[in-house]
Amino acid sequence: MEVKIHPSWKERLQAEFEEPYFAELADFVKREYRDEVVYPPPKHLFRAFELCPFEKVKVVILGQDPYHGRGQANGLCFAVGDQVPLPPSLQNIFKEIEAEYGEPVRNRSGDLERWAKQGVLLLNATLTVRAHKAGSHQGRGWERFTDAIVRALNAQREHLVFMLWGNYAKQKGAHIDRARHLVLESPHPSPFSAVSGFFGNGHFKKANEYLSAHKEAPIDWLA
Predict the structure, then answer these.
(1) Which pLDDT does position 4 carry in this prediction?
(2) Rounded to the nearest 5°, which phi and psi values hold at 39?
(3) CA 68, CA 179: separation in Å to the nearest integer?
(4) 38-39 vs 129-130, strand pairing mode
(5) What are phi and psi of 31, to 5 degrees?
(6) Nearest-angstrom CA–CA distance, 148 and 43
(7) CA dist., res. 172 & res. 159, Å (int)
(8) Could you list the mean pLDDT of each consecutive 10-residue stretch along the chain, which spans 223 residues?
(9) What's the confidence (pLDDT) of residue 2?
(10) Do 130 and 37 contact (CB within 8 A), yes or no?
(11) Distance (Å, whole) CA 57 – CA 69
């Protein structure tokens, strides 16, 4: 089947697109978009990959599910559409960045395209969700597909930073080669767990120190 995704990713994921599970997943997603309200909009399904080609990835942030409220999901994990109120997890991410750098985030938009264009792959484990039904597209094949993405980055790139927040992300990133990449783990930034170790994790500065040490331009997290 034909999948419209950035050529740099298509080349490395072609084997996944040819697997029977992916054909079943694609049929399911098409039916859901036809019969239900599904987020993100179809044009944003592979937006994370369009904004951040394979060879440009520097940092990977792993999320779980797209937001399921109207206007929220935009194809980037933890991000929301422009002019949409910031969800609590994203508010806490901004708070941690501001605490690390001692100054305010300059752009309060929740879109996060500005990070993606600098090399931050904002990857959800599941790329679609039915409106107002959290987790409704889990277990349909997306997790296998996004596992393949993590495997490809782990094997074919060097000196990437993986940010794994919460137990789900830690499990998904359990097989990343720690000798080849920097893996940063902490509790999730949600209000239920941020105070138990997300705040104060220092991940954003640690990521930039690692990138600089390997002669990569740091990410402007305050952008």
Answers:
(1) 83
(2) -120, 150
(3) 37
(4) antiparallel
(5) -65, -40
(6) 22
(7) 18
(8) 84 95 97 97 96 98 95 96 95 98 96 98 98 96 98 98 97 97 98 96 98 98 97
(9) 61
(10) yes
(11) 28
CB 85 within 8 A of CB 111: no
Identify residue 152 by its one-letter amino acid code: A
- DSSP letter string over the chain? ------HHHHHHHHHHHTSHHHHHHHHHHHHHHHHS-EES-GGGTTHHHHHS-GGG--EEEEE-S---STTT--SSTT---TTSPPPHHHHHHHHHHHHHHTS--S---S--HHHHTTTEEEEESS--EETTBTTTTTTSSHHHHHHHHHHHHHHH--S-EEEEESHHHHHHTTTS-TTTSEEEEE--SSTTTGGGTTTT--HHHHHHHHHHHTT-PPP-TT-
Cα 173 to Cα 51: distance, rounded to the nearest angstrom? 22
**From CA 177, how far away is CA 158, in angstroms rounded?**
10
Q: How far, in Å, are 15, 23, 32, 42 from residue 28 at the CA level? A: 19, 9, 6, 14
Single out the residue of 173, 210, 171, 201 nearest to residue 92, CA to CA: 201
Query: Rounded to whole angstroms, how far apart are CA atoms 223 and 206?
Result: 17
Residues marked as catalytic: 65
Here the tokens at position 199 are 């705040």
* Phi, psi dihedrals of residue 125, rounded to the nearest 5°: -70, -35
Distance CA(2)–CA(10), nearest Å, equals 10
